[in-house]
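Work Package 3 (structural annotation) set out to generate three-dimensional models for the target panel prioritized at the project kickoff. During this period the team completed the workflow that converts sequence records into discrete structure tokens, so that structures can be stored uniformly alongside our sequence database. As a representative example, we reproduce one entry of 185 residues exactly as it appears in the project archive.
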Amino acid sequence: MDKKLFSEMEKRMDKVLAILKSDYATLRTGRASTALLDKIYVDYYGTPTPINQVASLSIPEPKMILIQPWEVKMLQTIEKAILKSELGITPNNDGKVIRLILPELTAERRQELAKFAKKKCEEAKVAIRNIRREYNDALKKMEKNKEISEDELKRSQEEIQKITDKFIDEADKILANKEKEIMEV
């Protein structure tokens, strides 16, 4: 069976895990991370622009994000965008910089975040299984068209299942790490 087919499938499954990791990076835990702001856009001369492209972001303390806009007039715009986001953090604007102080997560909020993380992981697993189905269907079609033998079909399906299991396990590990991070006090 064509190894190119398997590597193509693995690349697609890798992308699913990359998206899962990216989603998890924007999920708020007990620690400050500039990734929390990755999905927040501000209006910069009529163009939606990520905050990190209009300001410098830093973490001076474990529970604080400092946002220093390159143009002072962007302070209000950035502040409004953060308030509109689902971060649940009130920005402190001193006229020069914006400070985001991350409050302690309540046990209830940690549970919600863990539930959301599980949901995202489940979505990733469904996407991985859909990719598996797609490739299995392609193999069945090849067998039907006599391009591969029945034995090759079985061997290839077993290989596809091994690859799928590997990626599902990886998704579970990523989830376990994120849940551990969320639940840390």
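The first strand starts at residue 41 and ends at 44.
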